[in-house]
Amino acid sequence: MANVTACIKPMVATSNGVFQGDNPVHFGLPLIIVQIILVIVVTRLLGLLVKPLHEPRVIAEIVGGLLLGPSALGRSKAYMANIFPPQSMTTLEVFADMGLLFFLFMVGLELDLKQISKTGRQALLIAAAGISLPFTAGVGVSFVLKQTIAQDGKFGPFLVFMGVAMSITAFPVLARILAERKLLTTDVGQIAMSAAAVNDVVAWVLLALAVALSGSGKSPTIVVWVLLCGIGFVIVMFVAVRPVMTWIASRCTTNEPVKEFYICVTLAGVLAAGFCTDAIGIHSIFGAFLLGLVIPKQGPFAEILVEKLEDFITILFLPLYFAVSGLKTNIGTIHGGRSVGLLVLVISVACVGKILGTFCAAKLSNLNFNKSITLGVLMNTKGLVELIVLNIGLARGVLNEQTFAIMVLMALFTTFITTPLVMAIYKPARNPIPYTRRKLDMEDDPKNDFRILSCVHGMKNVPAMINLMETTRGIRKRALRLYILHLMELSERTSAIMMVQRARRDGRPFVNEGNPDSRDQVVVAFDAYGQLSKVTVRPMTAISGFEDMHEDICTAAADKRIAIIILPFHKNQRLDGSFETTTPGFRNVNCKVLQHAPCSVAILVDRGLGGHSQLASSSVDHNVVVLFFGGADDREALAYGCRMVEHPGVKLHVIHFILSSTIDSHETSSSNTAATATHDHIGINENGFNVKKVTYEEISVVGDPFEAMVASLTNKTRTYHLILVGRSRRPTPLVAQLFHRHTHCSELGPIGHALLDPRIRASVLVFQQHDPMLQAISTLPDSSADQATLAAAIPKQ
């Protein structure tokens, strides 16, 4: 009877509701919902806290699990009884293991066996040293732990588990750290990824051996059967399953939806493979990992699978695994001098063994000191994979609670120190190419090529950018070199890391070449434009976090010797003419580019420039207006307008706004708004390009300059398609009157911000001229420089 009363009563799935006296957290489904929400909220909040420290999210998830367990909140009996009661743990672990199953499948999808087979001698040597020395050190530590706090259990499996736990490198966490630090495509990053991939495969083999050794069977032959069946399962996966998955992958083409049947077969295969390895006795995650490993990485099939799974698994289910690990970890078991000493010993041996082994191998491979020590620190990264090893060891009775807690803290510490140490030790060398043409010039040599870096956020920016480039290229025999940079956010998703791994340049945005499957719609669109218009187009992709995306843009501009960077405005126009923000992070990117750019910058506020499709050269018929208030930025806008008017389909109108007191009295109208003086010029100016029609107008502003500007732009006799203005960093007295309207969008300046008014229907291009001294005084007074620029821009009759 005692055994019967000690049994835990299973939970009923759903409640009848609070109005019928049921407490929802006493029922299975409502309780698991509360548990999932709590885990997500805690880990996400901690993620926000560690983000400024540039730590990977796994740190927040491990700490979150510890806080939810008996180390912190779990000290409250009421909390544990209601939120994590014993009868709910089986359900929670099933959910967590299911998430882990599919996550390991995605890890297998990340590892490319062809790339691993091409791993050079250097990476193999580093991987071998990075496994063997810490594995040996782990075995040595296991003798100390066995004599002190881990006296129970089998000694053989304990040795293997400790060796694997010390020697493992968390491949997904390492890839995330390298991508965020822009090291993934450096020499150090490539060697680290290759060595970590080899390390990962070897570690899983060793873990399978450890799991087989830790079985409960008393006969040694059982271990042999487990190992033989495991080897047979691997052979079946590569000989029988891999051809099937290759055939399925070959049936999937880029930009075409994958048949639901193929997705169904694959996901069912993950579950079946997990069942088989669990039945063999080496844990279900091995089957899922192997299936991901044998799926071909060429073509879109692997990426599509990751995209379909990653959000659901990594956001909803995977954090539960960290929570389950935290609920099993009681830091309170580490008390007294002996326990603390053992914790310090384990951390020291883990760090020294991994770092020293990798460092020595790297030095033997002729790498310098900084690269060698950086590789050692990177290879010391632990994380989820470490927790998997420890949880399996705890479940199999190989590790006790105190040893488990020590090893979890070791994994947390080694991962936490990786990013700050790498940032302090290693900074990739940059060799910027010096160049002088960092802004537009009215006296430009026609023989010089004109280099533009045009950034896009996605397909919504492509038509406007292509039409703008078409009107910019002119008809002179001067080459236009157009570099397109597709800006993509580096998210926490696995697919983002897979995209970044395609990069082939030293930490810089990479050029999209080679495999057609890796080319996105943006690249295809601009390639087509380059072929049709005979413009040299080089599409590139930059995948970075918003906080440092400007570094990719500025670095690309310096490397390509760009004269002007064109950025899309971070807001999109609504049907009523107002603007809405879709991705706020891009505004910070634009502001930082304006601050750090090595050349001139322009921001395009698109209101449907040229429509939503690409215009042929013969179809271009644009009226472009330059609003000239004075200053270096306005002169840059005027210079760009003169470049555009080279195109036979572009007409340029220059409006010079002047305070009423600065012009002669005979030019002043009786109107209280503005006085105008208009001059039409037709001909060829001294720069030698054809000007179909250039008109010049002076407006003397008496009242509100904003109303004068709107009145000139909404004149029914003339419709404008594009407005060119300066950012007015050094505002004239006239521009200063607009500051009372300038409440936000400082990147556009007071005039550009005022032109967001819904009454304005034309697109706006806001210019900032490159000034290395930022607010340095021009060699000419602004008024003299303005007159010289206007004289050069407006052809004489």
From TrEMBL:
Membrane topology: Multi-pass membrane protein
Domain Cation/H(+) antiporter C-terminal: 623-769
Location (main, coarse): membrane
Domain Cation/H+ exchanger transmembrane span(s) in chain numbering: 42-422
Bilayer-crossing regions: 27-46, 58-74, 94-111, 123-145, 157-179, 191-216, 222-241, 261-292, 312-328, 340-361, 373-392, 404-426
Domain Cation/H(+) antiporter central per the UniProt entry, residue ranges: 478-616
Top-rank taxon, per record: Eukaryota
Keywords for this protein: Ion transport, Membrane, Potassium, Potassium transport, Transmembrane, Transmembrane helix, Transport
InterPro entries named in the record: Cation/H_exchanger_TM, CHX17_2nd, CHX17_C, CPA2_transporter, Na+/solute_symporter_sf
Subcellular location: Membrane
Coiled-coil blocks: none
Assigned protein family: Belongs to the monovalent cation:proton antiporter 2 (CPA2) transporter (TC 2.A.37) family. CHX (TC 2.A.37.4) subfamily.
Protein name: Cation/H+ exchanger domain-containing protein
Organism from which the protein derives: Sphagnum jensenii
